[in-house]
Amino acid sequence: MRLKLFFALLLVSLSAAAAGDITDEIALAVKSGNSKEISAYFTDNIDLKVLQQEDVYSKAQAELIVKDFFTKHTVKSFEIDHRSVKNDTRFAIGKLDTSAGKFRVYFLIKKSSGKLRIQQFRIEAENE
Questions:
Q1: Are 73 and 92 within 8 A, CB to CB?
Q2: Which of 49, 64, 85, 98 could form a disulfide with 122 if both were Cys (CB 3.0 to 4.6 A apart)?
Q3: What does the pLDDT look like over 50-101, one tens digit per residue?
Q4: How far apart are CA 107 and CA 90, in angstroms?
Q5: What stretches of 20-113 show up as alpha helix (H) in DSSP?
Q6: C-alpha–C-alpha distance, residues 18 and 109, integer Å
Q7: Alpha-carbon 34 to chain mean position
């Protein structure tokens, strides 16, 4: 009986891991510098800060701002340093190394209209 329960729990855990974590998917999009992929996870109106530009933007406006950043800052590497999950809220903080310097990336994910979406996305100079 215990063996069956163990395998059932193992199967559920493996299924969840195979489905992937939205945080990892977003991290891959940042690592590739793909603004279109990143913005696919944005809410319709997102709290965005990219260097000195900070406001609540529409999804389309935010994508253009992020695209402009990655056009000027070719990604060398991106690694998540810290992440947290609590119920339907997640956040991650990572280090982004680009051709034009090093930056800190932060994103907050919450459930919106039944789906996990980025509600806040920030790219700041590493020393801020």
A1: no
A2: 49
A3: 999 999 999 999 999 999 999 999 999 999 999 999 988 999 999 999 999 9
A4: 8
A5: 22-32, 35-39, 59-72
A6: 20
A7: 12
Alpha carbon of 65 to those of 19, 28, 62: distances in Å?
30, 19, 5
126 contacts: CB under 8 Å, gap ≥ 6: 95, 101, 102, 103, 104
CA dihedral 64, 91, 98, 127 (to 10 degrees): 110
Q: Encoding tokens for residue 62?
A: 């935010």
Candidates 46, 64, 54, 58; CA nearest to 124 is 54
Evaluate if residue 27 carries a pLDDT over 70: yes
Structural Rg of the chain based on CA atoms: 17
Residue 93 · residue 79 · CB < 8 Å: no
- Residue 128's pLDDT band (boundaries 50, 70, 90)? low
